[in-house]
Amino acid sequence: MPEATAVAVKETKAQKMERLKREKNPWQVFDEVRQFAREGRASVVPEWASAYFKWWGVYTQGDGVGAVGGKGGEGLASEYFMMRIGIPNGILRADQLRVIADLTRRHARNLADITVRQNIQLHWLTIDALPEIVDTLDRIGLSPRGACGDVVRNVTGCPLAGIAHDELIDASPLALEISRTLIGNDEFYNLPRKFKISVTGCSSWCSYPEINDIALTAARRDGEVGYILRVGGGLSNEPHLAVKLNAFIRPDQALATVRTIAEIFRDQQGLRESRDRARLKYLFMREGWTAETFLAEIESRMQTTFDPAPPEQIPDDVYRDHVGIHAQQQPGLCYVGASVLRGRLTGDQLAAAAELAERYGTGDLRATVMQNLIFVNIPTARAGELVRELGDLGLRVEGSQFWRGAIACTGTEFCKLAITETKGFTRWLVDELEERVPGFDQQLKLHVTGCPNGCGQHWIADIGLEGKKIKHEGRMVDAYYFCVGGAVGRHAATARPVGYRVPATEVPASIARLLTQYQGQRHVGEDLRAYFSRHTVEELRAQFAGEVLTAVATRDQPQGRAPQAAD
């Protein structure tokens, strides 16, 4: 009989990524990037382009068409790169921001974005510029290391750490220590997937603990301040709010506890079988873990038993953005929160912001998860003057509800996974809504995401818009699918899809119809969240459409892998 012919089994995406990670720790071989820089873009090997660059906060930039321009749900890469600069706890100095502004003007076509994890993101970078940028950031105490990849991402925290009147504890030293301990640590270069941590000592939970893999929120127990622990939060295409564990974490236990959870995640070989189900949340969603079994695993590894969690005050605020002028705990000083529409700034604006922070305050700034900037340590008597200068700079301290609540992901402008353009659309949408619904008086989180992977966090928005393509008047155009009623805090819930999808050009009119009906029908004191809660999906769909409509097909699922570049 003839010999059997062996059939080669093609690697899955997960198997390929796991093999690449076993073969090389990207943090140890940055000299290879220096060689690419010397030899030019064509010298970049596929393994770096598809994987290893991400460990240095870098990924290939899309060609502007997005996912529809490629195959398998992923678009084509251009010759350029994106880089995300990690800013632990969002804490920035003016001298650091000035350097970032210079890099933005020289290497990124004068364009930068504040992300939803307190990073600053640059685009249009060439291969020869990458070593210079990394070395320059290293000299000012910042780095893109770990801002992407299967690693601990930028550790977020309250941007008012150390200055807020209502904070229980300044948690920023802990956030910075976690960042120093886990990011760049060879023990944690190979996690199953990205891993997000939030630490806050404030009462407003402004870093969104509900959607992080690990979240520590301050709590008081009999005069002692410690932390409540949550695990397994995340959005993407299958949202899951973090699970509270019945444990009181003392400050001296916090770092070891976070490290232990990272080790638990690292050790889950089952999570490595599929890139789409590799996040910590899937231990709860698919593997049968519970709050009790997770806590037992932590305690077993740490050889300790935590005290039970005390009662906590869950915040009721919607924005949690700290926009406006507010007194600090330091007498005579205030902070000024400036709303940055879509998080987009030019290098010139970054440089001007650094100059204003030094001229009016101590040169200290903070980035926020709502893509904004906060100027801290400002003498109260000078705050009004600063506000006027910020307005001249294009940053609003007293913007409309639409301006203040808008969030946008990167979109097809740069992202290979996106379906729709988002940044320009969001700017136009805000302008349209300000004109169509003037004087709208309710807090409104309006999040725009360019694909089902949800980097724009539409699942926790009052109104979330998810990018689609539909055929309209004989051609394929950008469109958006509507979700409503998402929230964090006391009313935490993921948004409800309402079965309504329209071309992007019709989105402002649709939202205006719903908001106008809300204004006319709301009960006394009824906010938008409560209004959504007492209406069915069918009723809300009709209010968006202006007529009773049958639901469109259910949400499309992502075609490609969840983006490594996603914040």
Overview of the structural elements:
The chain has 567 residues and is an alpha+beta fold. It folds into 3 domains: 15-302, 2-Layer Sandwich (Sulfite Reductase Hemoprotein, domain 1), CATH 3.30.413.10; 324-399, Alpha-Beta Plaits, CATH 3.30.70.3340; 403-545, Sulfite Reductase Hemoprotein, domain 1. Helices cover 29% and strands 20% of the residues. The protein has 16 helices and 20 strands. It has helices spanning 13-23, 31-39, 46-50, 94-107, 130-139, 172-182, 251-266, 281-285, 291-302, 347-360, 383-392, 401-405, 423-436, 507-521, 528-533, 537-545; strands at residues 58-62, 77-85, 91-93, 112-114, 120-125, 156-157, 197-200, 214-221, 224-231, 243-249, 324-327, 333-338, 344-345, 364-367, 373-379, 406-408, 446-449, 463-472, 475-484, 496-503. The strands form 4 sheets. Strands 1-2-5-4-13 form a 5-stranded antiparallel sheet. Strands 3-14-15-12-11 form a 5-stranded antiparallel sheet. A hairpin with a 5-residue loop joins strand 11 and strand 12. It is globular, with a radius of gyration of 23 Å. Mean pLDDT is 94; it is low at 557-567.
